[in-house]
């Protein structure tokens, strides 16, 4: 547990430092996410690192299984924008709904189209 | 005496940290009574319950956040932890590389592009447009992108959660109506459009959908932080 959380925080830290030097173009935790995926791939199967590997995976699963609660504190911040919601709430809801439906449709169609073109459904 | 106790507790981090955890556990228990009912979304329920208590009791957000920040802080390491499903499912990513990359680029452009176009059409200020633009990515990333674009991270957080809940509610009826049977495609779409909330929904529908949803969420976080610079 402690090893896992330390590894995640160290990768976040490396990500933040990298983001600082990139001028904040990509957020630090995102760089940390890409780096940890690459490092785990490179170090996978090394007996010396097996315990650290396992603990990182266990801690990550525990965090991701409870991902929802992490959005609550930020979401409650909506009470700072009650006037915007009262005046323009319907417009905001319309934008979110329209853009989410469009994004879902575009993504799923392109995925299926390209998978079909590249022979991904050959066994159908 | 009891009023003195309330004043004492309401300003200490302990009360709001404990309250957020307790409300969340109650909300997940409630959601478990009717599995698959997206209107009982525990995130939506928790936010509504806590926001109501704060508004009624006149506690400001800064006092609440003193306690809730300990939970909020974990968004950073949780974003890093999203690299783990990417690593574990590398073979699945490789075998679907073409559809995955094509859908990632198309979906990410659609998400940011449609949001920016619609919010400008509705006459929102540049600050609000910048706050809405990254709304399909996970909260930690969206807030970082928003503040980098001179948006308001608190508004971004609220809209990110709204987008997540919206996608989680819409995705199943919409994909059924479109007769999409490939759960890897369905999951990828909801993870790209609705980040972690969509991914939690996808896992509750189908494990393959959940997996592709997590992959989409991670990849879209990276791509959106680059793509927003094309629009803003």
UniProtKB/TrEMBL annotation, chain A:
Localisation: Cell membrane
InterPro entries found in the cross-reference section: LrgA/CidA
Membrane protein topology class: Multi-pass membrane protein
Top-rank taxon, per record: Bacteria
Keyword field: Cell membrane, Membrane, Transmembrane, Transmembrane helix
Transmembrane segments: 29-49, 61-79, 91-114
Pfam family, one: LrgA
Record has Transmembrane as a keyword: yes
Span of the signal peptide: none
Protein name in the entry: CidA/LrgA family protein
From TrEMBL, chain B:
Transmembrane keyword on record: yes
Membrane topology recorded in Swiss-Prot or TrEMBL: Multi-pass membrane protein
Places the protein is found: Membrane
Main subcellular location: membrane
Transmembrane segments: 6-27, 39-64, 99-122, 153-171, 183-203, 209-231
InterPro entries: CidB/LrgB (IPR007300)
Name used for this protein in its record: Membrane protein
Organism of provenance: Shinella yambaruensis
């Amino acid at each position: 547990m402690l090893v896992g959380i330390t590894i995640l925080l160290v990768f976040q830290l490396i990500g933040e430092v990298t983001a600082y030097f990139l001028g904040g173009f990509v957020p630090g935790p995102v760089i940390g996410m890409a780096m940890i995926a690459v490092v785990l791939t490179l170090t996978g199967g090394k007996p010396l690192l097996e315990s650290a590997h396992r603990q990182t995976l266990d801690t990550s699963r525990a965090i991701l299984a409870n991902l929802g609660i992490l959005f609550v504190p930020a979401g409650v911040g909506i009470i700072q924008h009650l006037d915007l919601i009262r005046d323009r709430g319907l417009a905001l809801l319309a934008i979110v709904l329209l853009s989410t439906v469009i994004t879902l449709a575009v993504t799923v169609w392109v995925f299926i189209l390209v998978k079909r073109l590249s022979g991904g459904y050959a066994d159908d | 005496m009891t009023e003195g106790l309330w004043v004492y507790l309401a300003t200490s981090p302990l009360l709001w940290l404990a309250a957020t955890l307790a409300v969340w556990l109650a909300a997940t228990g409630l959601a478990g009574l009717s599995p698959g009912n997206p209107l009982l979304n525990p995130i939506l329920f928790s936010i509504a319950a806590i926001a109501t208590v704060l508004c009624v009791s006149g506690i400001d957000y800064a006092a609440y956040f003193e306690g809730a920040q300990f939970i909020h802080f974990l968004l950073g390491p949780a974003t890093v932890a999203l690299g783990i499903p990417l690593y574990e499912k590398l073979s699945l990513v490789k075998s679907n590389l073409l559809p995955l990359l094509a859908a990632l680029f198309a979906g990410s452009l659609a998400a940011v592009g449609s949001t920016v176009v619609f919010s400008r059409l509705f006459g929102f200020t540049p600050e609000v447009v910048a706050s809405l633009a990254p709304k399909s990515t996970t909260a930690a990333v969206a807030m970082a992108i928003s503040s980098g674009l001179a948006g308001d991270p608190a508004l971004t957080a609220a809209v990110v959660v709204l987008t997540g809940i919206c996608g989680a509610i819409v995705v199943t009826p919409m994909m059924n109506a479109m007769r999409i049977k490939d759960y890897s495609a369905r999951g990828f779409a909801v993870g790209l459009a609705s980040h972690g909330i969509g991914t939690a929904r996808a896992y509750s529908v189908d494990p393959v959908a959940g997996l592709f949803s997590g992959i989409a969420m991670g990849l879209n976080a990276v791509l959106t932080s680059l793509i927003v610079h094309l629009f803003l």
